[in-house]
From TrEMBL:
Its cofactor is FMN. Residues 414-423 have a biased composition (Basic and acidic residues). CDD domains: DUS_like_FMN. GO terms for biological process: mRNA processing. Pfam families: Dus (PF01207). Its EC number is 1.3.1.88. It comes from Lachancea meyersii CBS 8951. GO terms for molecular function: flavin adenine dinucleotide binding; tRNA dihydrouridine synthase activity. Belongs to the Dus family. Dus1 subfamily. It catalyses: a 5,6-dihydrouridine in mRNA + NADP(+) = a uridine in mRNA + NADPH + H(+); 5,6-dihydrouridine(16) in tRNA + NADP(+) = uridine(16) in tRNA + NADPH + H(+); 5,6-dihydrouridine(17) in tRNA + NAD(+) = uridine(17) in tRNA + NADH + H(+); 5,6-dihydrouridine(17) in tRNA + NADP(+) = uridine(17) in tRNA + NADPH + H(+). Residues 37-349 form the DUS-like FMN-binding domain. It comes from the Eukaryota. Residues 403-429 are annotated as: Disordered. This is tRNA-dihydrouridine(16/17) synthase [NAD(P)(+)].
Amino acid sequence: MTLPNNSADGSSTSPSAKPKLLGRALFEKIGKPTKIVAPMVDQSELAWRILSRRYGATLAYTPMFHAKNFATSEKYRRDMWCDQDGCSRTDRPLVVQFCANDPDYLLEAAKLVQDKCDAVDLNLGCPQGIAKKGRYGSFLMEDWDLIHKLIRTLHENLDVPVTAKIRVFPEREKTLDYAKMVLDAGAQFLTVHGRLREQKGQQTGLADWDIIQYLRQNLPSDTVFFANGNILYPEDISRCMNKIHCDGVMSAEGNLYNPGVFNTEDAVDKDKTFPRVDKLLREYFEIVKSCEGSQASRIAMKSHFFKILRPFLPHHTDIRTNLASMNAKTSFDDWDEKVVKKVEQVVLEIFQQEDIDAKDVITTGETELWGGAYRQVPYWRCQPYFRPVNGVTGDKRVVESLKRSNDPDTADSQQDKKCKVDDVVASTS
């Protein structure tokens, strides 16, 4: 393996058509982003990126695109990408993410978007069954030669830089060697999701900030380095950056259930940090309507509605029934009349109550063993989701598991502690 052929000023001298900014120079050019919308399958599409930027996100990734399908299927491209994606006024800086196991298809796909983005990212973290079946994402973690070739092909032939997002191995040293290989191949940003490939769904577990910190401390100091995992509230972003000394923090599930998670500038304003579901829903709905050419935004709308309204719908099952009947072909008028306006009417009535000032209060709990504190948030406001397993929500499992792992009478070894912590669920990314 050879090192990337970079010039002293941070620009590439590769065979690509024109010099391109790399590494730290690229990071500075796009504004040194610290709050990043993660790439998510069918969830970080155009309308959601626009909304997230309004609430503080400073960089966004597209959903994970399948490189071969993007390169060969016009219908797939039309469903996933439109002229408004990568718009210089509303959708930058932007990184387009692909999953792939074939360098030629990856390059062909990337060339189709390179003039509408700031970088192209290789997904090396997807842990889902479809990734195992298709042999991409985290299921390439054992094939370092292929990963190196995929990244190097883009690095040497694309007009924009290549970046990568990885998961970790159980062994720190192996993970460090893995990260070094990815950087050696030509990746200009490295995003580390501090979970194992096996940590997904109900087995998600708490992301390991310690191993992310270890990588940050042992990789070259000029590496542009993003951390991913365990972001529930805005203050978790600064807590993560202070511990790991990373350049930015990426959020997936935390952002999906509450875009206000990125509002670090005015965190005391509950309307920005924990937006009212009626206000956020209307704002997002109007954005989708404005993204006329984005089929992906229209398809994703129902899923986003359910996530925005997650704490609200159990209290208003009639609206949940209406929402369940919607689909991508339902007219915007029906969406408005049967869901959006009904939510607005319910929340309006809530805020007309005489004691609303006493009810519309967000309380902060004590600092927990994991370093942050949980919030009690009224159901008419967006808030984190704690996935239940066997009837016990993730926030309660985090606390109880960490208590056990710190009790010498219940944990015989460091490995026991690690196993117990791996049983808990915080946010997924």
